[in-house]
Amino acid sequence: MRAVIVLPLLLLNIHHVTSAPKGVTASLEAKWSMTPFLLETSEFIGEDGNEKFWQFVDTVKELTVYKRGESVRSYYNLIIKKAGQFLTDLQVNLLKFALALRTCSPAIHASQQIAGDEPPPEACPAFVSIHGQHTCSTKDVKKLLRAAAGRPKPYLYKNDHTYPGVNKTDVPVVILYAEIGTKKFTSFHKILSEKAQEGTLVYVLRHFVADPKPQKMLLSGYGVELAIKSTEYKAVDDTKVKDSKTVINTEDEDNDEVQGFFFGTLKKSHPDLEEQLVELRKHLLESTNDMAPLKVWEMQDLSFQAAARIMSMPKFDALKLMRDLSQNFPSKARSLTRVAVKQEMRKEIEENQKHLSETIGVHPGDGELFINGLHIDLDTHNPFSILDILRGEARVLEGLHNLGIKGEHQGKLLRLPVNAVDDSYALDIRHPAIMWINDIENDPVYRNWPAGVQELLRATFPGVIRQIRRNFFNLVLFLDPVQEESVELVKLAELFYKHKIPLRIGFVFVVNTKDEIDGFSDAGVGFYRLLNYIADEYDLSQALMSMVSLYNKVDVGETLSVDTLSAYLKRKFPKANAERILGVESEYDDKRKDGALFYKKSGLSALPLALFNGVPLSPDEMDPEELETIILQRIMDTTTAFQRAVFMGQLTEGSDVVDYLMEQANVVPRMNPLILGTDQKYLDFTATPVVDDWEDTTMFSFLDTRDKTAVMAKRMKYFTNSDEDGMTTVTMWIAADLERASGRKLLLNALKHMKSSPGVRVGVIDNPSGKPIEDNTVLYRAIWASFLTQKNKATAEFVQKLLKEESSQLLQQGTKIKDLLIQGMDVDAFEKKFNTLEVDFIRSQQLFCQDVLKLSPGERAVISNGRILGLFEEQEEFTVEDFHLLEKITLSGSAEKVKARVKQMGMKPKHASDLVMKVDALLSAAPKGEVRRDVHFIKDSHSMLHLSPRENEVFYDVVAIVDPLTREAQKMSSLLIVLSQVVNVRLQVFMNCRAKLSEMPLKSFYRFVLESDVTFLANDTVSAGPVARFMELPESPLLTLNMITPESWMVQAVRSPHDLDNIHLQEVSGVVTAEYELEHLLLEGHCFDLSTGQPPRGLQFTLGMSRDLLMYDTIVMANLGYFQLKANPGAWILRLREGRSEDIYQVVTHDGTDSPADAGDVRVVLNSFHSKIIKVRVQKKAEKINEDLLSETSESKGIWDSIASITGGGSKKDDGEKRKEDVLNIFSVASGHLYERFLRIMMLSVLRHTKTPVKFWFLKNYLSPSFKETISYMAESYGFQYELVQYKWPRWLHQQTEKQRIIWGYKILFLDVLFPLAVDKIIFVDADQIVRADLKELRDLDLEGAPYGYTPFCDSRREMEGYRFWKTGYWASHLGHRKYHISALYVVDLKKFRKIAAGDRLRGQYQALSQDPNSLSNLDQDLPNNMIHQVAIKSLPQEWLWCETWCDNVSKVKAKTIDLCNNPKTKEPKLMAAARIVPEWVEYDKEIKQLLRQVQEQGDPAKEKQTPTPSQHKKVDNLRDEL
Fold first, then answer.
1. Residues 6+ away with beta carbon under 8 Å from 778
2. Which of 323, 467, 1140, 1214 has a Cα-to-Cα distance from 1151 of 20 to 30 A?
3. pTM of whole model > 0.85?
4. 190: nearest Cα among 76, 314, 347, 62
5. What is the pLDDT of residues 439-483, one digit of tens each?
6. In angstroms, rounded to a whole number, what is the distance separating the alpha carbons of residues 705 and 882?
């Protein structure tokens, strides 16, 4: 009752002053227009596989007819419903999230871009391109196909949608550009899909919308920050701007509580008081928005107080409160200081923190997110990549769910470490067939070396190989003595031996194994016998020397002959009896066959071959010239692994090193690339089909691949050899035609292996060569009848008998099956079954082989726990040893671990064995991610938020560790709220608070723009899209707006009348709107020179499309060989820039691209919002090997001169070349309207004092829309050129968070890559400077070999002595006798700067220093001064920079430029200082204002006439695009 009385009283006190709500909104639109939801949905479904994509396309063939009659919302719902036929409920939710994020939009636009390159014929809703010729009509397709073969095939991209027809390479390729769901698409699709199924053409579909809607699309997935600026020095422009009339929707803000009043509830119960309630709320907010600074003692506990507030709320509201507190912290801080913190909460948090820091290295205040144990680093991940992770996890989670694994078991199975496939499998080298030439541990030669394994840990110079008396490094050479290549390898082995490299060397000689061959008829056999003789008579090392001297007798290009052998034997060992050594009766022929047998069994590839510690070297590494370096490199690499093993105590003094090596997980009994290959395919057992019979083949044929697999798994019968638990861990399926010898042999080998190996079971699938009939399925039906009627043991024996070759000969001669039955079988039951067995189910099996295993009739395959090994050649044998290897690999993958987990579930053995097979296939098929962490807490009653998942549904296990008052919390709170709306989560949020805060933990307001589903307005139209809304901001502080976008996005403000760098709500009525545009998606890369391994400094790349190869270009940095290029969705071509780059270098290989690795043209498709990072390897051309890219010869002209890019009055190219030498290049940066006003005045003062043509370069990243709109007019009226340059701060370079420091970074860190190579000298002039001299003088000043010149700080104004920080402490000692220079004006000799890699050095030093927040307080100035010893600075004469703070009034007369430095003593605002110090400033200011007024007046009427676009900006933009 009390509240009801209080309310009217409060309402009485408020005077009615209704004013529009104040606030800030920011939105980000794509550069391309809206893409249709239907196409985005098809792309989303297509990511699950080509088959699904085309099924969906067939389902929605003519869906767009509904578009006209329905509202947008119901059409959207229709699309979702259609997609639901192909997606599970979870995937449908992810689809809605993907559509809200527009995550597939870039893929659609990329196709559109590729279509535009064709180009499309006029007024064509859809068209086909057949080898370069186009038509809009279905009738012309036949005609164009006839002559297609004569024209070159089109280029197909990795993610093109190819219709699943018959795969043939020699047929024409037809590309259809159309919009699915339209009539025109359907008519083309019908014809093309039929022809593709017949195999007469390859049909590729690319999305193409003939007339895209002009509507722009708002994006989400980014953060917006309003940071509170320091107002120590007033930096706000006093020019008024027109306020926007934006009305903002505040409904969603009403539900929160203000000082104990819940306004949402109050409005519902008192609708008549709505207006007064709004006022009361506003009044209360203004009294709480108390921004008075807190005392230090009030701040100390804020983090715990915030956690206590959050923990006191009901579950879901708690997340919302966390979002509210972190995102509006500056205005909530005071209210938090009154919260009491319970002691038990504090204690629990500290206990958990101790545990976390010990287990996963997370410290107080850190923010970490784990989804199903996968660590999501929020610095590198964004909503787009998190959606990908959710989709990848969905497959595994749904699979486990469908297999009946719920609750706790799910997490345990997910966290099983699946051993990733190891490329470097090793062969066991403890084999008697290896002839070891030396033994480091026992040979007397090495006896002076130390023997302890601890020696490995002793420090040595880098690159020194430690000589230790242990067989750490073993080289085995497989040779055929007669091969030409063997000669060099033997010589190399001798070289290693002679130089006492600690390498144990062994040979395996593979020679003729026939008994009747002797040493006089075969040089190989002779060689082997001769060696044995020498080894017996003398010793092995002597044998090695003899081999070398024997090979020295062989001429280059010749091979070893019997004559050479005999002659050598006669000369070296005159007493020896040649017949006894080489002849038929030789005593030295012992073990001759062993080598060949070992080689054959090992499954290795062609000779000659080397194993290093058992790991085979690749054929390219076997080149003798390379081999020496490779072996030495391997020794160095392996040393570190041994050092780790010794350090961890795995390798001790008592260990046998070779045994230790051979017990590692990657050692296998034989090599079989088919089994050990990394490209693995798995069956998907997770479906639960409605029907499970295979007797009805027609029915079976309609099932999709997953359902067919599930039916097979359900109906399969097994030969079993259980382990002691009654379970089998490895399930093998053998698919074969048992009427063929090869099929029978395969099954027999499998059964032989099974017999010797407990824990294996074998199932058989029949794949007859012809259509299954009684005659060609006799054996299989006999096996099946025996399965159905006999005991397991009898069946196994009977089948083994059946499979023997003599049995099949008997059958062919007419013996009946019943005559082959063995004792102990139930004959009657068998006969009855065998005679009545139909062949229909075998037809279904053949269908399974064809559709799922992709086998032709009669072909064989082996499936091990769902992993398919198929397509054996007819002659290829899969031996018992191969089965043994396959079992070992399957077990060591994850089968062993899965079995242990399944065993704990306590189910029947048959069911358990099935589950092991299915789960193993599921987990092994999942892409190998990083390790899943098991994050758990000691206690969770006071410090954890829990959200329980909905029962009996797939759920994600999400753990968040976060301090509620950190930047991480600002982002994570929004993300967790959206996550819990999109998927079913089990959520734990731990309050990871910091104690004893000494400053405000957050100095900004923040919004994370993200929605879980597409939003619609009340009238069923799509809402404009996601926007960041800041309402109820305090009006007193000065704010600056920052967009925090994913790594590879380049955004710019395109519309806003307000100064986004200085937002002061007191002076604004209404809402400050900021509209941004995603201007570019970056293509990033790393480039290295193949021969030196170093980045090729100064190498230039260009990026373009096939119709315009030169759209953007860039320079490679020496740091990490990094380069970045601006691009947008589409297919791009990357090339070396014409000129020196292309003359000297060529591209050798590249990866991460969309063209084959060795193609000269590097094609890259950008089709998602993700970062695209490629690697390019280049090499100097042979004839240019000694040339240097950055040599003094002049750089040939490129894009930079041909376009006076975006310029107003850019000079024509030919004049440009004459005058190129004589242009003043001036660089400057500015942010905020005040500094832009100063900047215009600085430009004017430069132009007034020079006759030389001037070109201004501005950093585009931070310029306001109004500056970008008016600069072209200014260029026109004053006759200068300008260019806007931009560069995205590279992700590997330490990020600054404060806007001002980022801008300082741009002033100094990227000078070598911001400007084209053609610019030789650039002068940086601060925006707040006024120039009084001709800057040509400064440009022509001799820098005496230094890369840049700065002016030192003045010493003449005495009263400022106490503020000259560089006179004491660090700077005084670091600089010595040098001066500290000011960064307001500097001249850079870019040629020299690049030549000495100054940019790379500056970035390196910055990286080292910037990790410490207290260093580099004036980044742009401290960095060059700090590097003065490495990168010299030429001190410019003092008069080049005068500033009142540091210089006395006498010197002002001579000043060539005047800088408006801040004065730390008086803190005088800039505008007042400017008018007082520089009389001409006021004149310049008036002149510019006059010009801007004219522009405004011209602009408005002109705009009406030209186009109805909302702002002049569009016009300028079109101009840019044409350029």
1. 739, 811, 817
2. 1140
3. no
4. 62
5. 999 989 899 999 888 888 888 877 788 889 999 999 999 998 888
6. 28
